[in-house]
């Protein structure tokens, strides 16, 4: 059995994953609970880990189970702030109990999802940007006024966010001297990404925390942050400039 008294982090992590992954394999072992998966269009790769010590009780045999993550997210969306989550695995289903003011029991059938191990990209990056999640979210909302894609430009201690459409353009600049921004770069780095995908990637980042963006010219971007004790990272494919 797996027990988690503070369910909010798990709930938010599943919501973030389900934005891209419909079905996937969760691995339960001595490291905790993890998932590596790509979305059907191969645009986003998700790497999730919630370490064993984040759970109040972790007594499960090592398992590799396929689940409908959209359905799992529907169940977790019903969790109340003070609920305790209990998970049990059998040969053919996952049982989830939400224990609080009322006791609720759900079950999900295990799926036969391809067991091919996802390999994480090994590319090196030329720039890294640590930025306050609230600032990034607001900048992307500005970009959404005009475009469906966004160009990120790192140059001379600044992060520029640019969007262009038939109705207008946006050019916003975040400067390194701001306490909510840390930039490291080998030079100018420019790359273009889907705005909707990027907004969905960071939607569960706590507004007061930092999001790490790692970039390379015309290459996939790595976006990582924590959701409570859970660690989540996304690799987002680039678009042609």
Overview of the molecule:
The chain is α+β, with helices and mostly antiparallel strands. It is elongated. It folds into two domains: 2-109, Proliferating Cell Nuclear Antigen (Box); 127-219, Proliferating Cell Nuclear Antigen. The chain has four helices and 18 strands. The longest helix has 11 residues, at 8-18. The chain has helices at residues 8-18, 69-76, 133-143, 195-202; strands at 2-4, 23-29, 32-38, 44-51, 57-58, 63-68, 84-89, 93-99, 103-109, 127-132, 149-155, 158-165, 168-175, 181-185, 189-194, 210-215, 221-227, 230-236.
What characteristics describe this protein?
241 residues; alpha+beta; Proliferating Cell Nuclear Antigen; 18 strands; elongated
Return the CATH architecture of the largest domain.
Box
The value of Rg in angstroms is 19 Å
Q: Oligomerization state of this entry?
A: single chain
Tell me the strand percentage band: over 45%
Biggest beta sheet attributes? 9 strands, antiparallel
Please give the number of β-strands: 18
End-to-end separation in angstroms reads 49 Å
N-to-C series of helices and strands = EHEEEEEHEEEEHEEEEEHEEE
Low-pLDDT segments: none
Query: How many structural domains are formed by the residues?
Result: 2
Strand order of the largest sheet: 6-2-3-4-18-17-16-10-14
CATH class assignment of the largest domain: Alpha Beta
SS class: alpha+beta
CATH fold descriptor of the largest domain? Proliferating Cell Nuclear Antigen
Principal-axes geometry comes out as: elongated
Report the average pLDDT across residues: 94
Instruction: Determine the fraction of residues in helical runs and give it as a percent range.
Output: 10-25%
């Amino acid at each position: 059995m797996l027990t988690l008294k503070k369910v909010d982090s798990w709930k938010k992590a599943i919501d973030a994953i389900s934005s891209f992954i419909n079905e996937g394999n969760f691995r339960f072992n001595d490291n905790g609970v993890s998932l590596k998966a790509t979305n059907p269009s191969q645009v986003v790769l998700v790497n999730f880990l919630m370490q064993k010590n984040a759970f109040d009780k972790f007594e499960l045999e090592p398992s590799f189970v396929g689940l409908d993550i959209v359905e799992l997210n529907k169940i977790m969306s019903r969790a109340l702030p003070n609920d305790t989550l209990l998970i049990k695995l059998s040969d053919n289903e996952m049982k989830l109990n939400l224990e609080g003011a009322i006791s609720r029991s759900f079950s999900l059938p295990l799926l036969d999802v391809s067991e091919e191990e996802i390999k994480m990209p090994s590319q090196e990056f030329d720039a890294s940007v640590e930025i306050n999640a609230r600032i990034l979210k607001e900048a992307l909302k500005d970009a959404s006024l005009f475009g469906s894609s966004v160009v990120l430009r790192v140059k001379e201690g600044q992060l520029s966010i640019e969007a262009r459409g038939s109705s207008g353009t946006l050019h916003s600049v975040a400067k390194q001297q701001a306490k909510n921004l840390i930039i490291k770069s080998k030079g100018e780095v420019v790359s273009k990404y889907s705005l909707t995908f990027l907004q969905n990637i960071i939607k569960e980042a706590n507004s007061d925390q930092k999001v790490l963006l790692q970039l390379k010219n015309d290459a996939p971007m790595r976006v990582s942050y924590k959701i409570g004790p859970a660690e989540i990272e996304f690799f987002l494919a680039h678009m042609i400039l």
